[in-house]
Amino acid sequence: MTWFEYHRPQSLGEASDLLRRDGAVALAGGTDLLVALRHRAVRPALMVDLKAVTDIADGIEVEGDRIRIGGRVVMSRLTGDEYVNRHFPALAQAATVVGSVQIRNRATLAGNLCNASPAADTAPALLAYGATVFASGPADTRPIAVEEFFTGPGTTVLERGEIVTAVELPIPPTAVGSAFARVTRRRGVDLASVSVACTLDPSGRTRFGFGAVGPTPLLAESTSDDLATDDGWSRLLAVTSPITDVRAGAEYRRAMLRVHSRRALHAASVDLRAAT
């Protein structure tokens, strides 16, 4: 058995101070952390339970031209939120495939990002929508573009004592089409072998978020005109670097990435036509 201290702070400042200690880990939903503990991949000296920190919101609010998702918002809240489904359907679709119903009732969006899996289901959609992560630490709160948040498998730009308190998405000024797709080894609870989110605006600008095809979730941008050619697709997908692992081979990932990227773009164009 692994022994560790357990603290349940009430304030953000107290939580931040505790997380600055050596060997401290944060507990939000715990769906990734508890698995790591079970497999002894993580051996914390101190566990900081964030569920009682009222400074970290557990709601979804519209603030001007942005939607703000609190750091304690769970996946099931995202899937059932009318505003998220209306304006950011690819994010809602991604949240519906995170684990099982029980996991979605516990796993937080912030935790899915902080775990920093290259296959994180919500990361491609957040990349495609141009989300911003807000990290609060001992000194202040800083915004981080989601494409700059991940630094490698399981690692982020968060500094010691920093906590993700919110994720913001810009509300599109005009209609935008979007879609999410992923490939898994089997139906049901499984990590993605390939995942894709796509947004398309009326000018033809496209943004793709890719998962499980590089050391981090990846962002690529292009235009629908450029993607009318095979060369255009090759340039778009050049940011990826699929590997072979237990879930899929590199060549299979490359093939499925191209197929599902095309399908996601088509679905986003259909969504855009329906919205205009």
Structure, described:
With about 280 residues, the protein is α+β, with helices and mostly antiparallel strands. The chain has three domains: about 5-50, Uridine Diphospho-n-acetylenolpyruvylglucosamine Reductase, domain 2, CATH 3.30.43; about 60-170, Uridine Diphospho-n-acetylenolpyruvylglucosamine Reductase, domain 3 (2-Layer Sandwich); about 175-275, Enolase-like, domain 1 (2-Layer Sandwich). The chain is built from ten helices and 14 strands. The strands form four sheets. A five-stranded antiparallel sheet has the order 4-5-10-6-7.
Please give the structural blueprint.
Layout: E1 5-7, H1 12-19, E2 24-27, H2 33-38, E3 46-49, E4 60-63, E5 66-70, H3 75-80, H4 82-87, H5 89-96, H6 101-104, H7 109-114, H8 123-129, E6 132-136, E7 141-145, E8 150-152, E9 155-156, E10 163-170, E11 177-183, E12 194-200, E13 205-211, E14 218-223, H9 230-237, H10 250-275
Parallel strand pairs: 1-3, 2-3
Antiparallel strand pairs: 4-5, 5-10, 6-7, 6-10, 8-9, 11-12, 12-13, 13-14
Question: How would a crystallographer describe the biggest sheet?
Answer: 5 strands, antiparallel
Q: For the record, give the distance between the C-alpha atoms at the N and C termini, rounded to a whole number.
A: 58 Å
Enumerate the spans where pLDDT stays under 50 for 5 or more consecutive residues: none
CATH architecture of the largest domain, by name, is 2-Layer Sandwich
Structure summary, number of beta strands: 14
Give helix and strand order, one letter per element, not per position: EHEHEEEHHHHHHEEEEEEEEEHH
Q: Which range best describes the helical content: under 10%, 10-25%, 25-40%, 40-55%, 55-70% or over 70%?
A: 25-40%
Overall radius of gyration: 19 Å
Task: Write down the domain tally.
Answer: 3
